[in-house]
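Our collaborator T.R. sent over the components below with a one-line note: 'Predict the complex.' Nothing else. No constraints on interfaces, no templates requested, no preferences about which chain binds where. So this is a plain run: every listed entity goes in together, and whatever single assembly comes back becomes the starting point for the next discussion.
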Amino acid sequence: MHISEGIMTAPMLAGGAVLTAAGVAAGLRKMETARICQVAVLTAAFFVGSLIHVPIGPSSAHLMLCGLLGLILGWAAFPAILVGLFLQAVMFGYGGLMVLGVNTFNMALPAVAVFYLCRQGIKSNDAKWVFVWGFTAGAGAMFLAGILLAGSLYSAGREFKPVVELILIVHLPVMIIEGLVTGWAVVFLRKVRPEIFQIYLMFPKEKESLSCQWAK
Amino acid sequence: MPVGKIRPMSILGGMFLSIFFVHEAFAHDLHLFAAVEGKNITGYTYYHGDVRVPDVEIKVYAPQEKLLGQITTDDNGEFKFALSYKCEHTVVAVSPDGHRATSVIKAEDLPDDLPAYHASTVEAYPEAKTPKANLTLSETQLKIIVDEAVAKQVRPLREQLERYENKVRLRDIVGGIGFIVGLAGVSFYFAGKRKN
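Returned assembly:
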């Protein structure tokens, strides 16, 4: 999902950088002290997740975890993804420093979108629905990131439709895996640490006294 | 099923099983290998895990970004570009989904009997002179033969080195995580300052 150096035009690079800067500022502003550790741990997960390629047959795959980051961090996904991508660019040459803004925006905006779209679904007390919404968040974030990537390449002078098709076809299996992993992770977190999602939880009546630390 | 009834082990098992459902390459980082072979630049493009990439646009540039030629990789992700000049060649590969890789071939690595490059002569595309078959080998011809033989021998080493360089190493990952922990520390410092 990275765009490499030397493909985007200068105005797009500047635009991406400005939008990312705005997102990062919003993320840092909304980040409470108590959540710094969560952000750091998820940044590390994002950084490592995209590096560990699991060889499958003749090829390899890896996770992106944008959906999970978005669900848990919300706007703080912007600084998290920025740091993760920065490290990947500096240490491994994935993407690059010039396109860091565009790449961050392409992955962090879907994360924030997922935060608003799928977070409510996790309120459910039924593990099946929690899983379904987790899956939607994981796969959906990747889908949106693919669309944004295709849009960026389109702005760099490529035809939109073939690029979208190519990206989505290549990523379809990974999208499903990402959805499954995110779904399972969300179900697990929802069970053992529901307060990690910044939501009001609707517990069944007898448990109504349970309060949520992060509920606002 | 209520949330409380899912066991962690089933989640781990599911994560493990999910690994087997991927068939397609997750195109991530495009790599380019290019080397001189006789009077050609040959090479191939590949994704992580040695997956060759067909239909990649390969552009070859002389110094000052002068385009010398353009080709696409074949079904095996391989390409061959005929050399016309002795100068630094920059090979740029761009895959349809926006990945890009470059490789620079130094002028010293090219055969000596290629004409020197001048920015003004590019349009002419002169064919490189091929040495005529001769029973007695001149010093230059012998040098060319030796160069070709050595290039052939060195190629696998170069490929191996290239792959080694591209490998993601544990110490880099650990270093990256250390960086993130450090950033968290800095954030805590500023958060603490803000409270005071």
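Summary for T.R.: The helical segments of chain A are 10-30, 36-49, 66-73, 77-92, 100-118, 127-155, 160-192.
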